[in-house]
Every structure is written in C-alpha cells, then in structure tokens.
Amino acid sequence: MPEAIDISVDRLSKTYGNLVAVNNISFEVPRGTIVGFLGPNGAGKTTTIRILTCYMPPNAGSARVAGFDVFHESLKVRENIGYLPESTPLYPEMRVEEFLHFRGKLRGMDRAARTKRISEVVARCWLTGRERSCIGTLSKGYRQRVGIADALLHNPRVLVLDEPTVGLDPAQIREARKLIAGLAGDHTVLLSTHILPEVEMVCQRVIIIARGRIVAQGTPEELKNRSGSGIRVEVKGPADQVRSALKAIPGIDTVDGQAEGSISKLVLRGKTSSELREQIAGTIAQRGWALRELRTEGVSLEEFFVQITDTETAAA
C-alpha cells in the first residue's frame, strides 16, 4: 500500500517583483511524521509556510495539505491545519479557557465540542491548573503551550510550527520538545526551527532550503552521512608537530581542532577506514607521543547544515 501523504508540494514558486523567494521546490511529508523544515534567514521558509497555510498564493506550481489544494480548496485546508507562527498571537487580557472557547467559536465548534476538546488539549499541553489564568500573566513557556493548544483545538491532521521554542529557557525547551515529539502519529508536523539539535531529537525527516531551493532532504542520519565521517584524536605532544605529522598522512584532507597546553584535540577528515586509523596510531607511536583517544565520529546535523548552505551561498 502506498504511503499516505499529508503535505505535497510540486514545483512551487513565489516571486516578489524581481526577488525569487521560492524557486520550483518539491517535497512530500508522510502522514504521522515530524519533518524539520530548515534554512538560513531569507531562504524561503516563511514564504513556503504562508503558502501552505493559505496566507498567500504561489506564482506557479501547486501544494496540497491533507489532500486539499491550497489555492482552490483553501477553506478545507484551514479546517485540517493548525498553525503556530513564530510570534504567538494571543490576547493577554483573556483567560486561557476563555481564549480557547473564543478560538473554537471562530472555527465553528459547538459548545459541547469545544468543552471536550479544551479539556483534552489543556491536559496534553500541560496547562492543567492554568485554565483560569490570565494569559498576560503567564511565562513565555506557558504562552507557547497555549499557542500549541490553540493549534490543536480542532484536532487537525497537519500542524505547522514556526520556531516553537524560540525565547524559551532550557527547561521550557525540553518540555516543548517532549510535547512536540508526542504529537507524532496522531498528527503530521512541519517544524521550522533554527535549533539543529532540536531537529535531531524530534524529527524523522529533514528538508533544507537555501536561496529558495531545496538543497537536501532525508532522515537526519542520511544527511549526516552525506558529508562522511571524521576521526577524532587526542594526543599529548608538541601541538605544531602533531598537527603537521597527522596532516601529512595520505588520505587526510583537513585537520581541525585546537591544542590545550600539550594536549591536541583534533578532528581529521578525508577517507575513513580501519587502515587510516592504524596509520594515525602508528604515526603517533613512532614519535613517542601519548595517544589518549582515537575514534571515528560522524558530522553533526548542524555541521552538515552549515556545509550545504555555505556551498549554496558560494555558488550563487
């Protein structure tokens, strides 16, 4: 059976005069998955999100959300999508429960349906005990929870979350990540964020956009493996000599890292194999230096993101 798709983007483009904000992009988001949508500032993320949430039309191409066309069936899209923008639009003078009832009315939910769903989303977003609190008195973390509760209120198939943890403290970020991870399966989530470790923790797939084009997509592991791995070494010996000797080994292209006193902590990149590790260990032993650590290490998603977006910028 073919995989169900909740977001389908086909050759989508958007221009503002001579500025090409989104340039012929295509991607799909399978049902029930959390997908990270990444890119530097000005990459086209926000424009794409605004098209998917029916805030603006594209100039070319098409997009479907929950099976509905964003241009021709925008009301059906809005019925099936929940959206949390970066700046959460809340009324600070309203109480949490009052605000959620108000938002439910706007979505055409009757009182019984609103009451049932408010009880469910309050529990799911850890707002129990805060229903009568004035939104203006809540912390940033609690206001984000109210925003997510609002996005979940009509039980949409698709959620679009734009920088949901921006401005939160470390404890609040952990709570928000746990909440988002718990949405998988019940909802399809498109998560836009600049926090790369967050993506590795909660996302099954990643889409990277730069200068309006999709430059990479796949699972976090697939993307990290595209850049190859490195070999991390920690050596006790003269720093300059250590770096020079290791850089001279055939198959090593770059030597990154720094020395702390007589201890050099380095990452060697190039071809990676057991033979290369043996050459490194042999070179260090021949010179009488102490080998404190030697292990293969893959690049982080953050390192891959910097590499791919820098390459795209340089090629422009």
Write structural notes for this entry.
- With 316 residues, the chain is of the alpha/beta class.
- It has two domains: 5-218, Rossmann fold; 228-298, 2-Layer Sandwich (Alpha-Beta Plaits).
- Helix content is 36%, strand content 31%.
- It has helices spanning 45-52, 74-79, 96-106, 111-124, 140-152, 170-181, 196-202, 220-226, 239-247, 274-286, 301-315, and strands spanning 5-16, 19-30, 34-38, 60-65, 68-69, 81-84, 158-162, 188-192, 205-210, 213-218, 229-236, 252-260, 263-270, 290-298.
- The strands form three sheets. The chain has a six-stranded mixed β-sheet with strand order 6-7-8-3-9-10, with helices on both faces.
- A hairpin with a 2-residue loop joins strand 9 (205-210) and strand 10 (213-218).
- Helix 3 (96-106) crosses helix 4 and helix 4 packs across helix 5.
- The longest helix is centred in the C-terminal third of the chain and has 15 residues, at 301-315.
- It starts with a strand and ends with a helix.
- The mean pLDDT is 90.
